[in-house]
Every structure is written in structure tokens, then in C-alpha cells.
Write a structure and sequence with these properties.
alpha/beta, Nucleotidyltransferase, domain 5, 2 domains, 6-stranded mixed beta sheet, 14 helices, binds adenosine-5'-diphosphate, binds acetylphosphate, binds magnesium ion, magnesium ion binding
Length: 374
């Protein structure tokens, strides 16, 4: 089956054509590029299906066929992922309009974390707030982590069921997930994709008391605060650059003190989240880095891993390469790997599953119309 996959991330919209499990075409645009979806749709011959990444699926645990009702339900959770969800909704609408008769499937980042253990899923907030189970930790980057688990098992010659690993997805968004036996047991992003380590333009976790203080004294309303936390913080906010780690590292190498501090905070916070994630496992079989930074700035991930010597991890100098590989030294307590982010392959898999469940006929594919996406 030939699937057009669309992955709206915070910095880029990535498109790929996946034919029977192998990518045969690939393109990317800055996320705000007008006409990018039309370009993606017209660039390759008509696919059998399309699959769109939605970071938030609400309570949805599996991929679903996109219908008007599904989109309406996915729109309701847009405020919880304000950078990503509106873009995914727009992408799905455009693909449906441009490819009439082609089944469009929605695949969710949150699905992989849907069975988080209670202690990892809940915030210590008043019962009255959390009773409906909506104000909780959802977790994101699930499609990426799902692929990493599959690929790591393959690279290490182990079964997913026996593997305990920590996956650091380090792109424009950054998250760390602990996986035991193929299941997410803790993850750093929570109710929104703002929690966790520092990111390209997002703050990651900040003392809520500090934010309350600024809102009172600035004074600053929620929209202005959201803009600062999503777009004006992290590497970008600290260094005054775009937040692209390559740019920040170049400024740091040129002696810019703000950029030096930004990289130090970024590395420190990522290392801290990895350390925290390890404590959700009984044993660490692998630490895996994935995402644009892992692929293109491997020296930064090597620095993070090197600082994890307390866990017995040993990593030497590493070269930039597109190959999935072990980057740790032979005497490392566990292998450290870099795996290319392949959300495209998980998206295609999701579309194939939905269509197979319907007997292969797009028109008869299962939809979530009966079950609400909340
Ligand atoms: N071609 C590239 N060259 C250098 N760095 C890159 C490249 N692509 C991505 N990066 C790095 O990865 C980051 C974006 O990661 P990516 O996973 O593509 O982002 P998104 O979160 O939008 O999916 C950039 O900020 C940059 O640091
Ligand atoms: C969830 C998230 O932050 O995704 P991305 O890194 O693609 O922006
Ligand atoms: Mg991404």
C-alpha cells in the first residue's frame, strides 16, 4: 500500500511517501510555509491512503479514519497543543479536499502513552480538578518513541517484550520517555507539550510559582504568557537566536555568553530528565537519542550521554551520520544509540492497520464516529 504521510512538527512539516513499509519519497518545509500541503499532495502520484500525525488524540488509543466528526473532536483538544493541533487539523482538511476518495487516517502521539501507570499520569492537584481525568499527563512524541522501540529491538537483536529503554526525542520539541516491555511507563511531556526539558523555543518545566509571580507583576494575560512559553523561551529565548541548536552552538563557539549559557542549561535539563526516566525502570538496556538534533548535532547528544557516567554509560567522540547506530564504547554499562526519527513509517503502519481492519476498502474503514475523541 502506498501511503502519503504528513507530520506537522513545531519547526517543520515533513512529508513522505511510504510504499509497503519503505519510504520512496521525502520532503520538508518550515511549518508555516503557505502551500506546503498542496505541494506535498501534488508532488507524488495519487496514494492509496494518507496518514496525518496529530500530537493530541484525547482518549483515542488507536489510529482512526478521519471524518468530519473526528476532526470536530480533535479540535476540542487543540487548546492543549496549541502549536501543533491546529496545523494538523488544517493539513487533514486540505488533504481530504485535494484527494477526494482517498482514506485519510489520523495517528496520535498521545496513544503510545495512553496506559501510563497512575503515578506517572496524575498531577498532585485537587480531586475536584482531576476527577474527570482530563487534567492529567498525556505525553507526546509517541509515534517517534514507538518506532524507536521497534528499531532498537531490531538493532540489538532483542525482543521488545524484554527491553527496558529510555528514549530521548531531541528535535524542536524535546521529551524523554521510559519504556518497559514496549509500554510507556513515564514521559516528560504532560498535559501539554510544554513540560520537560528545555526545547528550541519552548521553556520546558518552570516553577509554576515563577509564572504566577510574572503574571501578577508584569502583568501578563494567558495568551501573552503562552506566546512566551511556546515561542520565546528555550534555546531561542535564552540566546536571542531562532532556537536551532546548530545556530546556538555556532554562537556559543564564537564566545557569545548567552548562547554558552543556553546550551549549558539545555544539556543540563536533558540529562536531568534522562536520569529521572531511568528511575522508572528496573534496569537500563539502552539509551536512545532520536529527532533532528540527534541526527544533525550528535556532538550535543554525545555530551549529554558523556555526562551520564554515573549510570556507567560511556560514549566517545561521534561523527555525524544518517545511519542508525550504537555510539557507546564497548565497556558502557548499556548501549547508547542514535536512531533517525521515522514517524513516517509509524504513520504508514497506522493507515495500513485502519484500512486492513476494514477489509482494505477505504470507504469501509473503521471510523471513530461512534466513539468520541475526547
Ligand atoms: N538539516 C538540518 N541541519 C542541521 N540541523 C538540523 C537539520 N534538521 C534539523 N536540525 C536540528 O533539529 C532541530 C529540529 O528537529 P526536528 O526533529 O526536525 O523538529 P520538529 O520538532 O519540528 O519535528 C533543529 O532545531 C536543528 O537543531
Ligand atoms: C510534540 C512535539 O513537540 O512535537 P515536535 O517536536 O515535532 O514539535
Ligand atoms: Mg518532530
Amino acid at each position: 500500500m502506498r501511503v502519503l504521510t504528513l507530520n506537522p512538527g513545531s519547526s517543520t512539516l515533513k512529508a513522505a511517501v511510504v510504499d509497503d513499509g519503505a519510504a520512496v519519497g521525502w520532503a520538508a518545509w518550515p511549518s508555516d510555509t503557505p502551500g506546503a500541503v498542496l505541494d506535498a499532495v501534488r508532488r507524488w502520484r495519487r496514494p492509496d491512503a494518507a496518514a496525518v500525525r496529530f500530537v493530541h488524540g484525547g482518549a483515542q488509543k488507536t489510529p482512526v479514519l478521519v471524518t468530519d466528526r473526528v476532526l470536530e473532536n480533535l479540535e476540542r483538544v487543540a487548546p492543549f497543543a496549541p502549536v501543533h493541533q491546529p496545523l494538523s487539523l488544517e493539513v487533514a482538511r486540505q488533504v481530504r479536499a485535494e484527494l477526494p476518495g482517498v482514506a485519510v487516517v489520523a495517528c496520535f502521539d498521545t496513544a503510545f502513552h495512553a496506559e501510563l501507570p497512575d503515578a506517572a499520569a496524575h498531577y498532585p492537584l485537587p480531586r475536584a480538578w482531576t476527577r474527570q481525568n482530563r487534567l492529567r499527563r498525556y505525553g507526546f512524541h509517541g509515534l517517534s518513541v514507538r518506532y524507536v522501540v521497534r528499531r532498537t529491538a531490531e538493532l540489538l537483536g532483542r525482543s521488545e517484550a524484554e527491553l527496558q529503554l529510555v528514549c530521548a526525542h531531541v528535535g524542536a520539541g524535546v521529551s524523554v520517555t521510559a519504556v518497559r516491555g514496549g509500554r510507556s511507563v513515564d514521559t516528560s511531556m504532560g498535559f501539554t507539550p510544554l513540560e520537560g526539558p528545555a526545547m528550541a523555543t519552548r521553556s520546558g518545566s518552570v516553577d509554576p510559582g515563577l509564572l504566577l509571580h510574572v503574571m501578577k507583576t508584569a502583568p501578563m494575560g494567558p495568551d501573552a504568557m503562552a506566546d512566551v512559553l511556546y515561542h520565546g523561551s528555550g534555546l531561542a529565548g535564552m540566546s536571542g537566536t531562532s532556537g536551532d541548536l546548530g545556530e546556538v552552538s555556532a554562537a556559543a563557539a564564537g564566545g557569545d555568553a548567552d548562547a554558552v549559557l543556553a546550551v549549558a542549561v539545555y544539556v543540563h535539563r536533558l540529562r536531568r530528565e534522562i536520569g529521572a526516566a531511568v528511575t522508572s525502570l528496573d534496569d537500563l538496556d539502552a539509551l536512545v537519542f532520536t529527532g533532528g538534533v540527534a541526527q544533525y548535532q550528535p556532538e550535543t547528544v554525545a555530551a549529554v550521554a558523556r555526562d551520564l557516567g554515573v549510570l556507567g554509560l560511556r560514549v566517545g567522540a561521534i561523527e555525524r551520520s544518517d545511519a542508525d547506530r550504537v555510539i557507546s564504547l564497548p565497556d558502557s554499562a548499556a548501549p547508547v544509540l542514535v536512531v533517525r526519527a521515522r514517524e513516517d513509517l509509524e504513520l504508514a503502519r497506522g493507515a495500513e492497520e485502519v484500512l486492513a481492519a476494514a477489509g482494505g476498502a477505504p470507504g469501509r474503514a473503521h471510523s471513530a464516529d461512534g466513539g468520541e475523541v475526547r
